[in-house]
Design brief:
This protein has 145 residues and is mainly α. It has helices at residues 6-13, 24-36, 54-63, 103-111, 113-116, 129-141; strands at residues 94-95, 99-100. A two-stranded antiparallel sheet has the order 1-2. Helix 3 crosses helix 6 and helix 4 packs across helix 6.
Length: 145
């Protein structure tokens, strides 16, 4: 061998320069870092909530008046700007800027927003876990923008 360990020689072999002047190793590192962004698979347009019923969630969103603060496809309400629009929720990275956007986190958030972020303007609506699960299923079913 040339005096370098096996691991070192593998990394040295990655130092082959590409046409753009970037080394293959640097490019590989950048791509793997980008692939790791996002905290666990959020922002999947086909995200589903296990056990959730989107139709029941649509009814609950209307019944609880969510359209008074949020713009939501298929829900009548004022042109609300108190909370964020919820039409493309599955493409968001975070819920309320504090939780990775995963179905189980959305259910937790819907059940008691102030417990997760005491400074939130979103009230605790007293939702049961079943109701929160159905609402989450409805919100993740929306494709709008």
């Amino acid at each position: 061998m040339n005096g370098t360990s096996g691991a070192a020689s593998r990394y040295q072999s990655m130092e082959t320069t590409t046409k753009g002047g970037t080394t293959a190793g640097t490019l590989l590192l950048a791509l793997s870092l980008l692939a790791g962004c996002g905290e666990g698979g959020a922002y999947d347009a086909a995200m589903t909530v296990p056990g959730g019923d989107p139709e029941a969630g649509h009814f609950l969103v209307r019944a609880h008046g969510c359209g008074a603060c949020h713009r939501i496809d298929g829900v009548r309400g004022p042109d609300a700007n108190v909370g964020p629009p919820l039409n493309a929720l599955s493409s968001q990275v975070y819920i309320a800027g504090v939780l990775p956007n995963l179905p189980e986190n959305m259910v937790r958030w819907l059940m008691d927003p102030p417990a997760i972020d005491p400074r939130t303007a979103m009230p605790d609506l007293g939702l049961s876990e079943r109701e929160a699960t159905d609402i989450a299923a409805f919100l993740y079913s929306l494709e709008g923008g």
